[in-house]
Amino acid sequence: MKTIVINASPRKRWNTAQIVKSAYEGAKSVGADVEYIDLYDIDLKGCMSCLVCKSKKTEKVKCYWRDDLSPIIERILEADTLLVGSPIYFGKPTSHFRALMERLIFCILSYDDYGSYYKGKLNVGLFYTMNAPEDVYNEVYEEDLKENENLFNLLNANVITYPVFNTLQVKDYSKYHMSAFNEEDKKEFNKNQFPKDLEEAFRIGAKLSKKIK
Fold first, then answer.
1. How far, in Å, are 52, 55, 77, 204 from residue 2 at the CA level?
2. What is the pLDDT of residues 112-128, one digit of tens each?
3. Of 133, 129, 138, whose CA–CA distance to 200 is shortest?
4. Where are the alpha helices (DSSP H) in the chain?
5. Is 192 helix (H, G, I), strand (E, B) or coil?
6. 2-209: CATH architecture
């Protein structure tokens, strides 16, 4: 089993990175061959609407735009599991997450019937970390983020979404203009909840990467 783990956050050691690295360890624990990618390290663009992937003269299920993301998309489409984490900015995943999703999904989407050209089965785990508490996620974010899950369903397998709430932005709030937040409350919540989130990420990584006998 091949699993690709992608950190779609610009921060390499903070909340999102820790969550996807725990998912990475979960995938490794069941014997998967795992690749880890920091998406902000590469030169990439979103879909350029070149439409080569829709041409009758070209091979389907391939993104033809050439940048650092192109070979990653090829490896994803050859894998068994994709685990992606992104922080939520203004209620949305990062621009790099969006670029990956646009490029990956558009090249498999049929404009004949809006089905999928992709014939494989790729399990997907989506991890979202956010400063917002759970009630805001439920009331404001969840329905919109569900659309991402619907797009990833075109990869013909299981899609699991896991939100991580009320995360810490920084270690010391006194050094920043962040008086809207109660540092003590956030740290107490993080102390109790974030280890549970790491455990769940590990479990999801293992579940989606486990070889079906």
1. 28, 30, 10, 15
2. 999 899 999 999 999 99
3. 129
4. 15-29, 69-78, 95-106, 134-136, 142-152, 183-209
5. helix
6. 3-Layer(aba) Sandwich (3.40)
Q: Please, what is the average pLDDT of the chain?
A: 94
**Partner residues linked to 4 by β-bridges:** 35, 82
**pTM here?**
0.93
pLDDT digit string, tens, across residues 133-166: 999 999 999 999 998 999 999 999 899 999 999 9
In contact, 52 and 64? CB cutoff 8 Å: yes
Tell me which residue of 191, 189, 186, 188 sits closest to 170, measured CA to CA.
186
Give one DSSP letter per residue of 89-105, joined into a string. Answer: ETTEE-HHHHHHHHHHH
Residue 33 phi, psi (nearest 5): -85, 110
User: What's the length of the chain?
Assistant: 213
**Number of Cβ atoms within 10 Å of the Cβ of 119:** 9
Rounded to an integer, what distance in angstroms lies between the CA atom of residue 14 and that of residue 119?
Answer: 36
For residues 152 and 50, give the distance between their C-alpha atoms in angstroms, rounded to a whole number.
21
Distances (CA, A) of 23 to 39, 47, 84, 202, 205: 16, 27, 9, 4, 4
Q: Which amino acid is at 185?
A: D
Pull the structure tokens for residue 66.
């050439």
Angle between helices 95-106 and 142-152 (to 10 degrees): 30
The full set of domain ranges for the chain reads: 2-209
